[in-house]
Structure to design on (160 residues):
């Protein structure tokens, strides 16, 4: 597991950009964290790093947005979903196992529905004095090779 502390939204976006530049095709990234933790901010950075131009918004109401960059970026939000039947209607399998990158906000609502091989990033608010301090916990799951996290480790080490 890799843990990085972010001291602001732009730093969280930077972490996302670094990840987005190195993320391989077919990757599923499961984003977890409380409301307002910074999942969408991180997703915006990942999209920028993957070459997506324009605004990246949380797909809370539409459930999914597709962005075009160096890779297709499929951005899902499970927040408003009530049960797994809703997930089947979305046809997630074709996205999970495609050539693009899949981001899932609120992935902890239906963890058994996610592919075994994935990157999980949990964002936790720091309840200290500073308003936007976040701790990002990176976990590779299944047979996922964690080598693409090396650039993020370098970034985290440079901040120490």
């Amino acid at each position: 597991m890799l843990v990085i502390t972010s001291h602001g939204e732009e730093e969280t976006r930077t972490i996302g950009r670094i990840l987005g530049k190195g993320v391989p095709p077919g990757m599923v990234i499961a984003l977890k964290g409380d409301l307002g933790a910074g999942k969408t901010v991180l997703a915006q950075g990942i999209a920028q790093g993957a070459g997506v131009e324009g605004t990246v918004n949380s797909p809370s109401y539409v459930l999914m947005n597709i962005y075009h960059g160096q890779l297709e970026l499929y951005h899902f939000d499970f927040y408003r979903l009530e049960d797994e039947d809703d997930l089947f209607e979305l046809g997630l399998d074709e996205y999970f196992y495609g050539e693009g990158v899949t981001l899932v906000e609120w992935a902890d609502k239906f963890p058994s529905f996610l592919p075994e091989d994935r990157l999980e990033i949990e964002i936790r608010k720091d309840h200290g004095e500073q308003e936007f301090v976040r701790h990002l916990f990176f976990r590779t799951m299944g047979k996922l090779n964690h080598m693409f996290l090396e650039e993020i480790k370098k970034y985290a080490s440079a901040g120490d």
User: Anything to note?
Assistant: The first helix runs from residue 9 to 22. The beta strands are 2-6, 28-33, 64-68, 72-77, 101-105, 118-125, 134-141. The mean pLDDT is 84.
